Amino acid sequence: MQMKGVIDRREFLKNLGIMGTGVLAATSPWLAAFASVDESRRERVRLGLIGPGSRGRFLLSFLAENPKCEVVAFADIYQPSLDEALKMVPTAKTYTDYRQLLEDKSIDAVVIATPLNTHYRIAMDAMDAGKQVYCEKAMAYTMEEARAMYLHHLETGCIFFTGQQRLFDPRYIKVMEMVGDGVFGKIAAINAFWYRNNDWRREVPSPELERQINWRLYRDSSRGLMTELACHQLQVGTWALGKLPKRVMGTGAITFWNDGREVYDNLHCIYEFESGEQMTYASVISNKFYGLEEQIQGNLGTVEPERGKFYFEDYGAAPAPAFVQMLMDWENKVWGANTFAGSSWDPEVARVNPGEYILGKAPESDGTSLLTEAFVEAVCTGKQPPRIAEEGYYATQMCLLGHKAIETGQTLEFPDDMKTDYAPYGTTKPQ
User: Fold this and answer.
1) Residues 311, 353: one domain?
2) Quick one: CA torsion of 292, 298, 300, 302, rounded to 10 degrees?
3) How far are the Cα atoms of 75, 186, 331, 343 from residue 335, in angstroms, in the given order?
4) What mean pLDDT, rounded, does the chain reach?
5) Which positions ≥6 away from 13 have C-beta within 8 Å?
6) 21, 53 in Cβ contact below 8 A?
7) Lowest model confidence (mean pLDDT) among 36-40, 52-56, 136-140
8) 14: domain range?
9) C-alpha–C-alpha distance, residues 76 and 106, integer Å
10) Range in 40-54, 85-99, 233-247, 267-281 with the lowest mean pLDDT
């Protein structure tokens, strides 16, 4: 039985023509994870979940429904999280030390959904234990940790996925095909933002658990909005442009939630590319009016993947918005119709343009179900899908570099020693 919100893989691939060739195969080659789906139908992955908190249990909701996956163990230092996970998979073993889970040689793969500052050690230990690894984004707490994790993936040959679900979101996959086909012309700018209006806190049953439960709010365990939110959206920008930014500058502050937190509640970054394109990133958590989006802007049109819509520049002449027309009428009554250069109240505003849906209808879900399914398929076949580890790696490095630019107040170049061999972005690892 298919869960609500789960994308039907076969129908999805059929609709997008994934199994064919061309631009789509070039922009999203990691979809090759599904190429052996029929051959692996008798395989079954034994999986352990390390960190069954809210995000971990969200992933579990898909993994537990996958007929090729048997969730056999949970590990967490917080007993209530283990208790909630057992409600979903009562037969699973539980551990308070993840290393005991890794000692179970019958476990093929692990999903890591723990606080950011713990990813590195757990992932490295998991690969040393011969486990295939799915690690939630961002990969690591520091750029050096992220590089060591990626290199260890290469050295051990272990499958490595990160939680960049947009890589498997139908809207984004189709958008990148359209961008690659030149539908929107030359892409000159990408404006990404994620706005919320809440304190980002979780209820704490006892004061001594504050830093354990609200780890996202403290510097020793979190990089705040950059690693928790920007990591998703910056990857969209490099995916669309097909290259890495050259430098980044940024600023951040705590301006509203003065409640003892140590990470910023608002921030802004500008990423500059070698040939002049700009990618901006903003996040504010005291106003949610604009929500979240990545606005990919070309000279022929704009696409907003989160909304699932695109807009062409030559939509056609449209009447002035009502408020502009009202002000023009008011000016004409007061000053007469013979103004020198038209109404001073007539700015260059966005005209009425309903746009078109990328996939013919409003979005229904993101790509998490397909991402987890691809991970299971990769473990079944023993094949690392092309480029997926690299996309996750560079997404992490970009958000960590942006965080460092905010902290130092400096314009920072993307460091050469953090680059790796990745032809799509034209980067090579240091010799």
Assistant:
1) yes
2) 0
3) 74, 43, 6, 10
4) 89
5) 19, 31, 34
6) no
7) 36-40
8) 9-167+368-385
9) 19
10) 40-54
Pairing of strands 356-357, 309-312: antiparallel
pLDDT tens, position by position, 116-162 = 999 999 999 999 999 999 999 999 999 999 999 999 999 999 999 99
Per-residue pLDDT band at 27 (split at 50, 70, 90): confident
Q: Are 257 and 199 in contact (CB under 8 A)?
A: yes
- Indicate the pLDDT class of residue 4, thresholds 50, 70 and 90: very low
pLDDT in tens, 335-383: 454 444 445 545 565 667 889 998 888 777 788 999 999 999 999 999 9
Contact 361, 171 (CB under 8 A): no
Shared domain for 147 and 216, answered yes or no, is no
Kindly give the pairing relationship between strand 412-413 and strand 356-357: unpaired
The closest of 189, 175, 165 to 308, measured between CA atoms, is 175
pLDDT at residue number 14: 60
Q: What is the DSSP letter of 314?
A: T
pLDDT of residue 21 exceeding 90: no
CA distance 312 to 358: 12
Helix 231-241 / helix 388-408 crossing angle, nearest 10 deg: 120
* Residue whose token pair is 């070698």: 274
Pairwise CA distance, residues 9 & 367, whole Å = 10
300, 397: one domain: yes
CB 409 within 8 A of CB 402: no
Instruction: Look up residue 184 and give its amino acid.
Output: F
Long-range contacts of 204-212 (CB under 8 A, 24+ apart): 209/78, 212/77, 212/78
Residue 356 lies in a domain: yes
Q: What is the DSSP string of 327-367?
A: HHHHHHHHH-S--SSS-TT---PPPP---EETTSS-----S
Give the residue from 4, 7, 32 showing the smallest Cα distance to 369: 7
Q: Are 380 and 407 found together in one domain?
A: no
Tell me the chain's radius of gyration from C-alpha atoms. 23
Phi-psi region of 410 (alpha: psi -120 to 50; beta: other; left: phi over 0): beta
How is residue 411 written in tokens?
A: 């314009």
Does 219 fall in a domain?
yes
pTM, rounded to two decimals: 0.90
